[in-house]
Amino acid sequence: MAAFGLRGKSLLALALVCLLAIIPAALVGWLVLQGIHQHFGDAYARNATLLQRERIYAPISRELALSLRFANSEVTRQWLLDESSADKRALFFREAEGYRQDFRDHAYFLVNAESFNYYFNSDAEPVNDQPRYQLREGNPDDRWFFSSLSNPQPFNINVDANPQLQTTKVWFNIFVQDRQQRVIGLAGSGLDLSGFIRDFISSAEPGVSPMIVSADGAIQAHQDNNLIALNSGADSASLTESDTLFGLLGSSAERDQLRQQLLALRDTPGSVTSLPVQLDGRDQLLAASYIPELDWYVVNAIDLRAARVIDSSWLLPILGILLLLMLALILLFALTIERLLLRPLQQLKQGALALAAGRYDVRLPSSRKDEIGELSQAFGSMAGRIREHTEQLEQRVHERTHELEQANREMAAAHKKIGDSIDYASLIQRSILPDRDLLRHLGEHHAVLWKPRDVVGGDFYIFRNQDQGCLLGVVDCAGHGVPGALMTMLAHATLDQAISDCGAEDPAAILARSDDIIRHMLGDSPEARVLATNMDVGLVWVDRAARQLVFAGAKIALYYSDGQQVECLPAGKRPIAGKRPGQYQNQQLALEPQHTYYLCTDGFLDQAGGEQGYGFGNNRFAQMLRTHASLPLAEQSAAFAATLADYQGDYPQRDDITMLCFRYD
């Protein structure tokens, strides 16, 4: 009866307290919910606008940056200045094809400001180097171009339809200028309007209407295509207020206030402003943020009554949860009374009986002030000491873990510095490669396969063009990675000096002079005897007038093939700067049409692969040349890389690989 009385009274007191607390809490909660609805609505509008801004900013900025690079390319500029040049035309369309693959819609356009020729290529049709049509100043469909010419800005983003191409896009119109800052053309790309709205503007959230607005208030993108002000990005002079966002507002005061807020946003890019307005006959909250790089405003019109600012469907579940919580609290209170009061009394009784029976492993209440309480206190003291020792051990483990984490961070920072340095060294090493000169003078009559084993390597290739001919060569310096890359700097400078001293038309003299220079630089230093400083070199002088090749090599031979036979001019057996000086002789060979000539370092021939892990080998190399010698050089290079990769399989790359191919038909 006593136990029931203590338990019953406790439960009754708790039920009364919960009832008295829940009723006023529910009233206050309802008032607070109504009060913060507007605050949450404003926060919802700001967050939705910032999210929409970030959703648009990155891809559009990328497309704009690519368009600027495309328009500012020297190849684009040179062709616009000389549109009739076939070579410049071909070079432009080759480069433009690379940009087209990078553009989001795989399309670009170009307009010559002198001839008004309009060029356009996309995935819809094969690449065409002829103008699609010619712009006319009096044609309303071409008004975007002539309006853009009067715009002082370096570019504009314009939403417009092109009837000739039968497409409506968000166009990135970039001015192309010559060295005197004179506009010579317009170039850029475009995003399909329907795809742009689907990817960046459409919102599945009820009550939210995203849009993009220009600095003049013209709507550039909206889920309702009828509200979009076409050609307003290029021809803002013809805009009227009815064509803008301001024309949709209910009063002139709202229009003036919105103008002021949009102007203020230009001074604080990235921030969000909000304004309650009448839009489409409904009270809506207008939130806007400015993107200075695009000169666009991202605007969200939010109907707070329709938007899910606060989901009212959770009210009934919350009430149910509160009721369950109250019942759980009562149950928890009952369990607490049972555990803190009733159970210790029962444990005290059972403990006394257990102690009387000689069992000392029982758990006794720790708050008693009698003999049982003293014993319980002794157990509690022992538990406290164990707990203290455990905490000390955990603290030591934490400190050691912190030291290890700090060491790992330092190691990561050091690794990053080393990686950054190697990446920068790779850029420096690539700067000495004559890719532009080869492309300018040999064009499609050459191909290069250059695969360093590491980020940087010990292989490189050279090219020197002169009036009567040109010098080509490949160099394989001892070592890989950073040591090999440093040797390439020394080797490149040595060959430059040797060519200057001996002339490009005498490869054997260049090799001998290079050997002398390196031996003179290194001398008898101990490092030269310990470290490998030698290099393999193959040089070919092409006399275009005489249709003759002059070859000399230091451990790098010259291969040539017409697709039927593979021949080889052997190289000297000693490398440059080896233990003993080598003897290098010029070998002459007629420059035959339909023949392809190859210089290759030993990294290709020595690459392990196949089932047994053997090197690629000379026989397999010769068969590969015979199979592909008749192909265009670009296809040969791709075929060689694929053949090597297929043979290599999962084996790691052993050495740097360089292969230079050329042909004179």
Automatic annotation (TrEMBL):
One of its GO terms (biological process) is signal transduction. The chain crosses the membrane at residues 12-33, 314-337. The keyword NAD does not apply. Residues 390-417 form a coiled coil. It comes from the Bacteria. Residues 339-391 form the HAMP domain. One of its GO terms (cellular component) is membrane. Keywords: Coiled coil, Hydrolase, Membrane, Transmembrane, Transmembrane helix. Gene3D superfamilies: 6.10.340.10, PAS domain, PPM-type phosphatase domain. NCBIfam families: prot_phos_SiaA (NF038263). This is Serine phosphatase RsbU, regulator of sigma subunit. It comes from Halopseudomonas yangmingensis.
